[in-house]
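thread from #wetlab-drylab

HS: before we spend reagent money on co-crystallization trials with adenosine monophosphate, can we at least see a predicted complex? here's what I'd submit
DV: go for it
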Amino acid sequence: MRIILVGPPGAGKGTQAARLVERYGIPHISTGDMLRAAVKAGTALGKEADAYMKAGDLVPDAVVIGMAVERIGEADAQKGFMLDGFPRTRPQAEALDAALSAAGVQLDAVVLIEVDDSLIVERITGRRTDPETKRIYHLKFDPPPAEVADRLVQRKDDTEEACRARLAKYHGETAPIIPFYEDKGLLKRVDGVGSPDAVTERLVAALGG
Ligand code: AMP
């Protein structure tokens, strides 16, 4: 199964992708996670990406496309994958299309998780990650247990200012990929408002069970 998860920052893509990859037995490919790992490791690519990410800007297509296409070519992704956070621009969608065609494979679905902007800022600024388990919590909506609370970290780009910049980028640069996939008959819209379990159920239903 080859799936793309699309949605504004804070729509729940990371949380839902972690659940879906377990269900479908496919790798979770998050360009955001890959870029954060590169920043942490101090690689040349990480150094280039760091300032863009902190500001809530998109990392240039030329950097991200090569990284994502290479990852999709790895052995574990041959049976399928769940892309989370890629493609994020029309040129990225076109490059992915070309890479998949060249490999002779097709996408099964592009799932758009829809959440209104008015809910996004509160979702994002309360978000915290457990660096040991990678589990994502929310201080108000999904509070962490006391024993892990002290070790939780906040993403550098989860401030209100960066969040607003990321939302603007989403509407300006990422939203244009929606009609691209709609025209191909691949787009499925899922309401992202509600409990994580309720959203997972809707996603599984949209993907055919
Ligand atoms: P995410 O974890 O998907 O929210 O990504 C975090 C940040 O990484 C984004 O705000 C961008 O700065 C960068 N990023 C991740 N994926 C992409 C992409 N496909 N294109 C450009 N920048 C990206």
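DV: Strands lie at 2-6, 28-30, 81-84, 109-114, 127-129, 136-138, 187-191.
HS: ok that's useful, forwarding to the group
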